[in-house]
Design brief:
By secondary structure, this protein is mainly β. The protein has two domains: 18-218, no CATH class; 281-443, no CATH class. The protein contains three helices and 31 strands. The protein has helices at residues 427-433, 440-443, 459-483, and strands at residues 18-21, 28-31, 38-40, 46-51, 54-60, 76-81, 84-98, 101-109, 115-121, 124-130, 148-151, 154-173, 183-189, 194-200, 206-213, 235-237, 244-246, 254-256, 263-265, 275-277, 292-295, 298-311, 319-328, 332-339, 342-348, 354-355, 361-364, 367-386, 395-402, 407-412, 417-425. It is globular, with a radius of gyration of 26 Å. The two termini are 26 Å apart.
Length: 507
């Protein structure tokens, strides 16, 4: 990727700010924005609230959950807002948790003194700003996952509806919800890629609106020199067989033992209570964990693997496929899907595609995808590390859509709908990316492509092809009639384009 030849201008200096000693330890606490009401002392972790020129200590903030983010306080960058490029500085960090996992929101200070949010969830980023709702919002329980609604005339789909809680914070911050107390959260997504977050921590609820951004497009300065984390305490003994287990990513919520393949939950943290679940019937991945390869111009590393089974509702026939969890420091996570229908590379979408009323098609970013499959999916075997608490037997309802240029997959759980989008990949490209050209036969899959008449094919040739196909259809129908077959449709096994259990699509 080409780099910007001109260095970014320095962030606009703050013209006014307020600084006062921490009521807990006396260290200086600074407020750059008039919209900031709270701050966390960097020395004693006291949570202080500002009332005019007076700071009051209201408690102590919990320690931050250690993550692999390249971001840090006082990093600065540029973003285009309302058609104009503006600078911003990260002045605060909040960490939230739901049943699905943990995510971070950075408070971004803008030149006009207002505060926006840079949401970070497992390597994906969404930039949002406060937005008027335009109407009285109903209570959170009225938003059901999968329903459609409108805010300010814009149609949205409900992607998440549940409870969250603040678990830690750092720096200068806007209004804070009580630490550790659950509050209602609703996330809406649009077919244009927008995300709208409704937080029920005040009355009326707080609304933020934005869209996904790439880290390299923000021209950030002041990032951490490296995202490698101190791994002290990240090794433990498997609670099932006693073998040593090493955790590579600090965002990991589930890991498998390399000796007995038990799934180990890390939700309580290393040193907390470890829960394990035995796995039998091992599935051997074709691409080994730890393998590195370049796909679509991005360098990925394989950190996880899961095998899944699916079945159409009311059908006893099952089909299986595999998913490789890929990781890149700046791009986050992606899924390399291996099915009998071929290979595909998919990533979670920020927006939510718009489903047709009959459910037979979906539109996203101006493209229409046709429904191919609807089925129930279940995770049957996992290896490696995962950023969500994966468990054997997890079940979801999936729909796969396809167009001439891409793939789209929906996965619905109890409280959340996640969408993923991507492209099919030739097996030769996968083999080359991971240095497995000598094992090409193991990776060989159907690599179908749309039928396109070449420039040398005329109308007469197309007519001959049509006649031949018609004759074949008639012969097949006669054979079916004579044998007394049911004539039911047949679906080849191979299943999902990219269904997966992300455990969190939050900004």
């Amino acid at each position: 990727m080409a780099t910007d030849p001109t260095p970014p201008p320095p962030p606009t200096p703050t013209q006014r700010f307020y600084r006062a000693p921490c009521p807990g330890c006396g260290a200086p606490v600074e407020f750059k924005s008039a919209q900031s009401t709270h701050a966390v002392c960097g020395y004693c972790q006291s949570t202080v609230v500002r009332n005019g020129d007076v700071l009051s200590r209201i408690g102590k903030m919990a320690e931050l959950f250690d993550d692999h983010s390249p971001l840090q306080l006082m990093a600065s960058g540029r973003i285009t807002l309302d058609g104009q490029e503006q600078s911003f500085t990260l002045i605060g960090r909040l960490q939230y948790k739901t049943e699905a996992g943990v995510w971070t929101e950075w408070a971004a200070f803008l030149p006009d003194g207002s505060i926006a949010s840079l949401g970070e969830d497992n390597g994906s980023y969404v930039f949002t700003r406060p937005s008027p709702a335009g109407r009285d919002l109903p209570e959170a329980a009225r938003f059901r996952v999968g329903m459609t609604t409108a805010v300010n005339g814009q149609p949205y789909s409900v992607a998440f509806s549940g409870q969250a809680q603040l678990i830690a914070a750092q720096g200068e911050l806007p209004q804070l919800p009580p630490l550790g107390q659950p509050f209602d959260l609703v996330e809406l997504r649009s077919s244009g890629g927008e995300v709208l977050s409704i937080t029920y921590t005040q009355d009326p609820p707080h609304v933020e609106r934005g869209r996904a951004v790439l880290l390299e497009d923000l021209h950030l300065q002041g990032l951490k020199d490296e995202s490698a984390k101190d791994e002290k305490g990240r090794q433990f003994n498997c609670p099932h067989c006693g073998a040593p287990v090493q955790v590579q990513l600090s965002s990991t919520k589930s890991v498998t033992c390399g000796s007995c393949a038990s799934i180990i939950s890390l939700e309580g943290g290393v040193g907390g209570e470890l829960r394990s679940a035995e796995q039998d019937e091992p599935v051997r991945p074709v691409i080994a964990l730890g393998s590195k390869g370049q796909l679509q111009g991005v360098h990925w590393q394989v950190v996880g693997f899961q095998h899944r089974m699916g079945a159409e509702p009311g059908d006893d026939e099952h089909f299986g496929w595999s998913e490789y969890l890929l990781y890149n420091q700046k791009r986050g996570f992606a899924f390399l899907v291996d099915s009998e229908e071929g290979w595909s590379l998919v990533r979670p979408t920020t927006g939510a595609p718009a489903l047709a009323k009959n459910g037979r098609s979906a539109t996203y970013l101006g493209k229409t995808y046709e429904l191919k499959y609807s089925y129930e999916a279940e995770t049957t075997y996992v290896l490696g590390e995962f950023y969500w608490p994966v468990v054997r037997g997890q079940k979801t309802f999936n729909r796969d859509f396809a167009s001439a240029k891409g793939l789209l997959s929906m996965e619905q759980g109890a409280n959340e709908i996640t969408w993923s989008a991507g492209d099919k990949m030739a097996s030769t490209a996968v083999a080359k990316a991971f240095g497995l050209t000598d094992q090409q036969d193991l990776l060989q899959r159907d690599d179908p492509g749309p039928f396109v008449a070449s420039k040398g094919v005329g109308c007469a040739t197309l007519i001959i092809i049509a006649v031949v196909l018609l004759i074949l259809v008639l012969l097949i129908s006669r054979c079916s009639d004579s044998s007394g077959g049911s004539g039911g449709s047949y679906r080849s096994s191979g299943g999902s384009f990219g269904g997966f259990s992300t455990g969190g699509g939050h900004k």
